[in-house]
Design a protein that fits this description.
It is built from five helices and two strands, in the order ααααββα. It is mainly α and about 170 residues long. β1 and β2 form a beta hairpin. The protein starts with a helix and ends in a 13-residue tail after the last helix.
């Protein structure tokens, strides 16, 4: 089991670095747009580019809070953290560093454990294997960044290569 857990640790470190690099690149691209365009309802799950970037940050704060036993309470998964893009970007950068630091301190054996947490939308605690919770954490980020890159592409803006092996 140790070798498998070591592989999960390598995965988490790879994804934390990928997440940080992709967020930096995506936010750099978004600076080309005025605030009104970033907040324009484009039909995404969280309406706009700004709304989607906000949701990714919000969910990262919720999940990292679960992982570190420092819960981050929210009223909804669309709760606005920052109305301005500059504030959103600054907190994104801080959160990405927290994620990298958290992963750097992980022990490989944690991936064989369970995570029990209180979900945002239900009073009933949930339990997931840690490897699955961490996989979801990074997959969720990638999923919604994919939505942002689609919205940018629809606006004629090329977000560049986003594939993990080439970033």
């Amino acid at each position: 089991m140790s070798n498998q857990n070591d592989s999960w640790l390598v995965y988490a470190k790879t994804m934390a670095n990928y997440n940080q690099q992709m967020n930096t690149r995506l936010y750099d691209v978004c600076t080309m747009l005025p605030d009104a365009r970033l907040k324009e309802d484009r039909g995404a799950f969280f309406k706009s580019i700004h709304g989607t970037l906000n949701h990714i940050l919000l969910a990262d704060k919720v999940w990292l809070g679960r992982f570190t036993n420092d819960p981050f309470a929210v009223s909804s998964l669309a709760q606005e953290l920052h109305a301005d893009f500059v504030g959103l970007r600054q907190e994104r950068e801080q959160q990405d560093q927290r994620i990298v630091d958290w992963v750097a301190d992980l022990r490989a054996d944690i991936f064989g454990e369970d995570l029990t947490y209180g979900p945002v939308t239900s009073p009933t605690p949930k339990t997931l294997p840690m490897w699955l919770a961490v996989t979801h954490f990074f997959n969720h980020q990638t999923h919604h960044r994919g939505q942002v890159t689609t919205l940018l592409s629809q606006m004629g803006i090329d977000p560049g290569v986003t594939d993990l092996p080439f970033v």
